């Protein structure tokens, strides 16, 4: 990958898109001078491959048009002042030498501070540049479209530029993945990777260790449609997400121990497959043989691993998992290995483009949603209803996307049926509910693969 600023875009002031021009005017009004540059990071929709990136497996997202946009003016003082075009997000300022990230209250500015701190620590910046920043976001918050990660990525990019540093896209993605964990979310890296590595017109197969992205050309004849359930879920504010991460880690330990591997060193379900040198189908068989469907108590886990309860709590369970007493290991491992296989099959179908490609891809999306609902238990009644409505009105495939427990669905719809589909889903899901009616204009939209993060400077 080229040095990142090879992708800097020069814009003539007179041709600035309306949104950038409006942001510039608001910045001048707020801070008394014009911004020196702008940075943009897109949200994403994951087409298939849910909750498997942090287990080491490949995922298949694409960037969307909705994004985080930040206007930036570096300043002489070592202070960062943050403001938002949305008045419901309060202004915030802090010293760049004293970054405090509050995990207990994941407010919007804390995500900016994650990206800021990640770049500072990577370069060991002793006297980082202060900044005035005005942020504008078009990604619906807590919708599963990666608004939080896009903000972390955009903040990392802003800090990089303001301090005159350069990194490759891959390096930026890896730093922003690690730095988002400052807020307490044990994510795997999909969101940050697609935000930086996306290219217009193509989805990406994102693989990890090492991080790499491969173009996936989506079949013609279908359009992907995002529908927001209007149930908000902030994964940093609840324990659902981190419990699933821990259940996968514990399943890794038990599977490793049963096969005579060095289980203490094994962290991800992918590691078990790699060490054993077997296929995903064989891993599913091993899960059936080794793990039982009933929940595991902490005492049973200790017995299986031959360790004390104290060692489990101090060496394996993270700080925010100390009060959890039961874990579902069989279901989580079964979902991860089957979902990882679906991702590879999805990519294969896109590559080979058989005559019935759309039907095959649609079937994989349906299977993915069933597994998310039943094995990973990350759906909710509203998401299930929305998936059913989308399939009823012509979607070839539909599934939850993002962490789940709320947020959005993604559906694959024949392009010639798109308008009818949108009209029927709008009527059935949004207009039947007064609360949803207020937000439906931003809740249902067709999308196509967008471009990754960029820096804009005025020519």
Describe the structure.
Belongs to the GHMP kinase family. GalK subfamily. This protein is an alpha+beta fold. The chain has a domain at 8-220 and 450-458: Ribosomal Protein S5, domain 2. It contains 15 helices and 15 strands. It has helices at residues 18-31, 108-123, 147-162, 169-180, 190-197, 240-258, 269-276, 280-290, 298-305, 309-316, 329-352, 357-374, 381-392, 418-430, 434-437, and strands spanning 9-11, 37-48, 60-75, 79-84, 92-95, 130-137, 203-207, 212-216, 222-228, 296-297, 326-327, 397-401, 408-414, 444-447, 454-458. Strand 4 (79-84) and strand 5 (92-95) form a beta hairpin. Helix 2 (108-123) packs across helix 3. The chain is globular and about 65 Å long.
Question: What tags apply to this protein structure?
Answer:
alpha+beta, Ribosomal Protein S5, domain 2, seven-stranded mixed sheet, 42% helix
Q: Order of SSEs, N→C?
A: EHEEEEHEHHHEEEHHHEHHEHHHEEHHEE
The CATH class name of the domain at 8-220 and 450-458 reads Alpha Beta
pLDDT < 50 runs, ≥5 residues = 1-8
Strand pairing plus helix content: what structural class? alpha+beta
What integer is the average pLDDT?
91
Please count the beta strands (DSSP E, at least 2 residues each). 15
Distance between the termini: 25 Å
Give the DSSP E fraction (strand runs of 2 or more residues).
15-25%
CATH architecture of the domain at 8-220 and 450-458: 2-Layer Sandwich
CA radius of gyration: 22 Å
Q: State the shape.
A: globular
Strand arrangement within the widest β-sheet reads: 1-15-2-3-6-4-5
How many strands, what sense, and barrel or not for the largest sheet? 7 strands, mixed
Q: Helix amount, in percent?
A: 40-55%
Q: Under CATH, the topology of the domain at 8-220 and 450-458 is which?
A: Ribosomal Protein S5, domain 2
* Number of alpha- plus pi-helical segments: 15
């Amino acid at each position: 990958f080229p040095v990142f600023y090879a992708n800097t875009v020069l814009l003539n002031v007179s041709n600035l898109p309306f949104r950038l021009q409006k942001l510039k005017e608001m910045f001048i009004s707020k801070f008394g001078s014009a911004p020196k540059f702008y940075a943009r990071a897109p949200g994403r929709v994951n087409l298939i491959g849910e909750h498997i990136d942090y287990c080491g497996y490949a995922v298949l997202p694409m960037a969307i048009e909705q994004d985080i946009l930040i206007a930036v003016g570096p300043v002489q003082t070592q202070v960062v002042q943050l403001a938002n075009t949305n008045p419901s997000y309060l202004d915030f300022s802090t010293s760049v030498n004293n970054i405090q990230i509050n995990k207990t209250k994941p407010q919007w500015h804390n995500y900016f501070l994650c990206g800021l701190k990640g770049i500072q620590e990577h370069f060991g910046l002793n006297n980082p540049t202060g900044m005035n920043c005005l942020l504008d976001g078009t990604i619906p918050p807590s919708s599963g479209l990666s608004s939080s990660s896009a903000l972390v990525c955009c903040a990392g990019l802003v800090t990089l530029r303001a301090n005159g540093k350069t990194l490759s896209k891959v390096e930026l993605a890896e730093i922003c993945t690690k730095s988002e964990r400052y807020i307490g979310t044990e994510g795997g890296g999909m969101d940050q990777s697609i935000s930086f590595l996306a290219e217009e017109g193509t989805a990406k197969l994102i693989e990890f260790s090492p991080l790499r992205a491969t173009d996936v050309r989506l079949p013609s004849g279908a359009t992907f449609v995002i529908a927001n359930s209007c149930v908000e879920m902030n994964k940093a504010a609840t324990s659902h997400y981190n419990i699933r991460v821990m259940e996968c880690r514990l399943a890794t330990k038990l599977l490793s121990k049963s096969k005579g591997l060095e289980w203490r060193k094994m962290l991800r379900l992918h590691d078990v497959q790699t060490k054993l040198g077997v296929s995903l189908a064989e891993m599913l068989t091993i899960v059936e043989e080794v793990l039982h469907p009933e929940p595991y108590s902490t005492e049973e886990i200790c017995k299986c691993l031959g360790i004390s309860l104290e060692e489990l709590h101090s060496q394996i369970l993270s700080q925010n998992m100390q009060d959890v007493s039961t874990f579902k290991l069989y279901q989580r491992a079964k979902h991860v290995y089957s979902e990882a296989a679906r991702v590879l099959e999805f990519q294969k179908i896109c590559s080979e483009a058989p005559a019935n490609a759309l039907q095959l891809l649609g079937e994989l999306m349906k299977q993915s949603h069933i597994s998310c609902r039943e094995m990973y238990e990350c759906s909710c009644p509203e998401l299930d209803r929305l998936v059913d409505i989308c399939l009823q009105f012509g979607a070839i495939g539909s599934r939850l996307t993002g962490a789940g427990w709320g947020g959005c669905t993604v559906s694959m719809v024949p392009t010639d049926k798109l308008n009818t589909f949108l009209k029927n889903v709008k009527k059935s899901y949004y207009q039947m509910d007064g609360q949803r009616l207020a937000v439906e204009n931003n809740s249902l939209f067709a999308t196509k693969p967008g471009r990754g993060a960029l820096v804009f400077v005025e020519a």
